[in-house]
Amino acid sequence: MQVLKSNINTNSKQFKQNYEEMLGFVQQLEGHLEKSRAQGKPKHIERARKRGKLLARERIELLLDKDSPFLELLPLAGMERKGGFGAGGTNVCGIGLVSGKLCMISSNVGTRKGGSVDWATAFKGLRIGDIARENRLPSINLVESGGANLTDQAKIFNYGGESFREITRRSKMGIPTISVVFGNATAGGAYIPGMSDFAVFQKQAAKVFLAGPPLVKMATKEESTDEELGGAEMHSRISGVSDYLAEDELDGIRIARELMEIVDVTTPHLIPEGDIEAPLYDKEEILGVVPANIKTPFDVRELIVRIADGSKFSEFKREYGTTMVTGWAKIHGYPVGILGNNGVIFSESANKAAQFIQLSNKNNIPLLFLQNTTGYMVGKAYEEGGIIKNGAKLINAVSNSEVPAITLMIGNSYGAGNYGMMGRSYAPRFLYTYPSAKIGVMGSEQLAGVMEIVQRASAKSQGREYDEALGEQLKAMLIMEAESKASAWYSTSELWDDGVIDPRETRNYLGFSLAILYNQPIKGADSFGVFRM
Question: In 3D, which of 460, 368, 473, 377 has the Cα closest to residue 416?
């Protein structure tokens, strides 16, 4: 492959200014992540300590293979939702190595609202279930939850059952789930261990029942203790709901690791051999390369050269459809086809990308989409030139592509450009966002401008004067609202991505994600829908 050379002057005023601006976004990200790592109020943590309990993140650390990485997912889910439990909800989720095997891990934060399930926690659970199924990852649940948050029940009830359904569907596919119960698993939460392939209950700590003693007494007048009704020893010796009785938390984690040695999982389809070539350029430079101001254009090759092995990139159709960059590279030794935007998508760019997606499918190579586009080109000449049918070809190719894909939002993601570049609704296996990126139907100023044109036309048709002062006020309010809803913080809060990432960590996130994709054989599509010619 050809080695790409950077054309960026890292000593220029523009580079240094952009570096500082992007660093500001990264510092915001670090602040949000720090809040998401909070595991409850000090008094609740102290109470847990007095009871000899580990915290959610400590359990994960002990479960993982020593010194192995952990890819945390959706850490900021729900952070901008009013009435929720804050960033990340009440579970910590991610992918890591347990007994040498890639696993999806979910750990309830029992010291935060008792581990109760709010909107963000529920939908975060559904998303990680999708990821586990698509990538054939066994799941390990570290359970301590009070069940559904009652004030959120109307929002989550109809979706809550889906997580139970998916556990057993994955089991049917040969994708096991192990649940280790350290505390409460009440009401619907009792079905988490109940539906799992393996259930481990901690002695004198696990409490698993459909209804607790007060509700049982109210419903049946029967009196019982927590242990009699749903304790670990009862379930291990009498009901059979528990498969293993753990002496303490460490023993429960040991049993989970032991089970992972036993379970049959997918053999990795590809493990890179030999030395992995690092990029020729420092990852720190990415902060100065990718503009913090998304209105500033930049060559996406300048990002590729800083994430690809050896800065090598085999570019496809370089001279054609130049606002779309396509080609093949390796990241941490894993082959990948890359599609990156250099601005608006013209017909030639769409056609080129559609062909590239077909070729990658024919050669069973996964795809990486680097999104930075305001969408498809508009205007009379472009409509006459068939931008709709050519844009549809790209969306067709993306829709019917069967090789797994990763999407990274690095700048603009507007309109149908989001669709053509494998947005969330097109089900990429993983989707990450830079903290400066924006997403929406159109830019805030364009949206406000369109609304102003509509309002002026409406006033004219009604024979009245357009109120300029009121119009300016409404325009400013609309821009402010659209900007807030387009931000990376809003999109990650709504689970439109799997995490906002520090641009300097791009290569590591992509490398880990590709390792997950290559954990099973990759087979591209043999056919596509009708391409309108």
Answer: 377
Tokens describing residue 413 = 């993601």
What are the b/e assignments for 191-206, b being 16+ CB within 10 Å?
bbbbbbbbbbbbbebb
Predicted confidence (pLDDT) per residue in 5-14, tens digit: 999 999 999 9
Which amino acid would we find at residue 339?
A: L
Judge contact between 73 and 107, C-beta under 8 A: no
Report whether 232 contacts 205 (CB < 8 A). Answer: yes
CA atoms within 13 A on the CB side of 506: 29
Q: What is the pLDDT of residue 157?
A: 75
Strand 367-373 to strand 101-108: parallel, antiparallel, or no bridges (unpaired)? Answer: unpaired
Task: Note the pLDDT of residue 16.
Answer: 97
Q: Any bridge partners for residue 406, and if so which? A: 368, 430
Task: Answer whether 343's CB lies under 8 Å from 374's CB.
Answer: yes
For the stretch 303-360, pLDDT in tens is: 999 999 999 999 999 999 999 999 999 999 999 999 999 999 999 999 999 999 999 9
The three-state secondary structure class of 514 is: helix
The dihedrals phi and psi of 136, each to the nearest 5 degrees, come to: 55, 50
Q: Cα(230)–Cα(226) distance, rounded to whole angstroms?
A: 6
The answer to whether 338 touches 307, Cβ cutoff 8 Å, is no
Mean pLDDT (the chain, rounded):
92
Chain centroid offset of residue 392 CA: 26
CA distance linking residue 10 with residue 110, whole number of Å: 47
Calpha distance 175→513 (Å, rounded): 19
99 vs 190: which has the higher pLDDT? 99
Q: Are the beta carbons of 180 and 202 closer than 8 angstroms?
A: yes
Closest by CA to 366, choosing from 324, 402, 393, is: 402
Give the global pTM: 0.92
- Exposed/middle/buried for 140, CB within 10 Å: 0-12, 13-18, 19+? buried
State yes or no: pLDDT of 468 exceeds 90: no
And the tokens for 491?
Answer: 């999109």
Confidence check: pLDDT of 280 > 90? yes
CA gap 339, 324 in Å, rounded: 7
